[in-house]
Every structure is written in structure tokens, then in C-alpha cells.
Amino acid sequence: MGTGAIVLIPFPFAELTHVKARPAVVIAETADRYKDIIVAAISSVVPASCSKNELLVEPSAINGLRVRSVVKVDRLVTQKQANVLAELGSLSSVDLNTFISIFRSLPHRSG
Q1: Is 82 left (phi over 0), alpha (psi -120 to 50) or beta?
Q2: Cα dihedral across residues 63, 66, 28, 82: positive or negative
Q3: Which of 34, 36, 68, 91 has CB atoms 3.0–4.6 Å from 4's, for a disulfide?
Q4: Region 5-104: CATH code
Q5: Cα–Cα distance between 86 and 33 in angstroms, integer?
């Protein structure tokens, strides 16, 4: 599973009290012996206007999504690869480039 792959995983709620099976975009595989995956959430609840950290994605045969969705580039979790319920598809090259651009523009602290 490379960057841009779309998988179905049990995604935790922010309170960590529940999980919901939802699609997510793979960002990277961890470099340690566990080979976990870092993913960004995808939601079918599309806002009237996306934030600067969201990417609107239309369903296609390439990405395997069933409905118009929003990738929440700043809503990240690390998951065991064994938790992947299904591999749905991948972002198109255009969507992947936009995703990477948004990811790189996320605020960060140094030091």
C-alpha cells in the first residue's frame, strides 16, 4: 500500500470511545519493524465549502469511492496493516498531487 491508496479501516472517533469503518488515504508506512500505516480520514459528509485542509474527491473506478467525499488531510491516525478491512482503490494522479500539496502546507512547529 503506497501513498494515495484508499483503504477501508476502523477509524477512531476523536474521543477514542468508538470506531467507525470508513475509507482513508494512506500517507505512509512507518519505517520501524511494525510497518504500520499512517492514514487520513475520508468522509461522505461534504461541507458546503471545504477548508484549506480538505480535498473534495468525486467517486470513480480508480478510487473505489461510492459517493462524493472529502479527504480530511489533517485528520490522521496510525493503524496496523492487519486492521485494513479492504483496499478500495487509489487517488488519481491529480488528486494525489493536490493531497500532497495540502499535506505539505499543514502548520508545523519546529524545535
Answers
A1: alpha
A2: negative
A3: 91
A4: 2.30.30.110
A5: 22
Backbone angles phi, psi at 74, to 5 degrees: -100, 10
The phi, psi pair for 63, rounded to 5°, reads: -90, -15
The whole-number pLDDT of residue 111 equals 66
Q: Report domain extents, the chain.
A: 5-104
Q: What is the pLDDT of residue 35?
A: 93
* Cα first-last separation, the chain: 31
Please give the pLDDT value at position 48.
Answer: 94
Which residues of the chain, if any, have pLDDT below 70?
111
With contact defined as beta carbons under 8 Å apart, do 11 and 20 qualify?
yes
